[in-house]
Amino acid sequence: MKKILSFNLSLVLLFLCGCVQQENKDTRFLLNTVVTLTAKCSSKTLDGAFLLCKDYEELLSRTKPESDVYKLNNSSDYIEVDRHTKNIIEKAIYYGDLSGGRFDITIYPVSSLWDFNNQIIPSRDEISEALKNVDYQSIKIQDNSVNLGGKQIDLGGIAKGYIADRLLEYFNTNNVTEGIIDLGGNIVVFGDRDYTVGIKQPFSNGEIAATIKLRNKTIVTSGVYERYIQSDSMLYHHILDTKTGYACNSDLFSATIVSDSSIDADALSTVCILLGLEKAKELIENTPNTEAVFIDSNQNMHYTSGLTLENNEFTFK
């Protein structure tokens, strides 16, 4: 018997301490997720932030012929790209190197075979053939031009973090002093106040494993429970091993990263699951201004040394 579960909800649930005065808040479906922006600003300024999301969607879409990603995926030559596209690809290559190739944006030929909505598990032959086209080291960059070397990319594991960082810049430039950026679970909180964010218990009906108190930080969770297919005794989740093309064999159910940079938190949350608990914890302990909460496959919680846990709430030391 096959059971499919697909979650498009935020991986991190947000609770506010107190209420924001003179706030504007809106929710729209953009970037293939639910985007909620809350800020002490005019509705015009908030609309400008959503327009910025729309611009990035047009730039980074895999399916829109005018986007940088579409042009790159359908060319064997160098393509001149927007500086934002180049910045994201360069950061993705960095995390490819850091993870020993486990994080690889050229996984798209394989990931596109897995259809979690329609319960499609690809055959071993299909995966084996697609894996021949997975190698981020084939990507070449010259000035503002990129050549994928015949590969195809998916920036889904890193782009939302980059966009969240740019939205924070936008609000700062427009003198917005307080707010919340939530790109489907990629969360940035800013301003002179504390926020309490809930970390979801994997494979639960929305239960909270713990909370964490944040100020001027970004938090991102990746979890194997987000999208998966249960087939008999096998769990096929969406975080794929670049060597096998199947769900990575990890002892982590989820990795929550807290950082000053959302693009780094976004990539690291996936990298940590790919690495497993011990290597992930070592990596975060050696990454400046970054902390993590891990929930392992036995539903036990682990966290890095910069955090303190009391009454099921994390705070910074």
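The record above closes out task 2.4. Task 2.5 opens with a second protein, given below.
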Amino acid sequence: MKQTILILLTFTLLFSCGDETNTEKTAKLIDKSTPEAVVIPEEINSFPVEIDLPLGWELAKDEQLKVLHILSPTDELDEFQEMVNIVVGATSDRELDAFFELNLKMIQGMFEELNQTEKPSYETINGVKYKKVRYNYLFAGLPLTAQLYVTIKDDKSFIVNCSALQNTFDDYAKEFENIVNSLEIK
């Protein structure tokens, strides 16, 4: 069930990104859960980002679809594996507001009982302006909450989606915030 949700969420996010051009930029992942920071440049080498992982969280990547999945530790009692998806795509020559609105409309058309729980707002993270929104929705019968961040840098779009069950989202809010605040786009 968790794998199906992961695949469908990935498809949803990718659908909104458009075509991606190749990049020669390298990325590195810094895992500060160990006593010394560990740099793993080959892990996500085609993604122009740096990010910190919370202790116990795992990284999965899809090079072809240009998606990084940061997954919470698994628990056999969990109905849903909390995650942060980072999708790198093209902008289709849109500015941030237009690109954000296009993505939000696609999301609104794809999920049952989607309820936007906050108005879109702006946040600057590591010198980059993001537009964000939070919403609740049903997916495969599960009530989920997602915090969506969207930005554009150069000719690339970056969509960051933090997802958890509605009744556990606040339990993971600190980890989500730490991941998003550590994100550096190169």
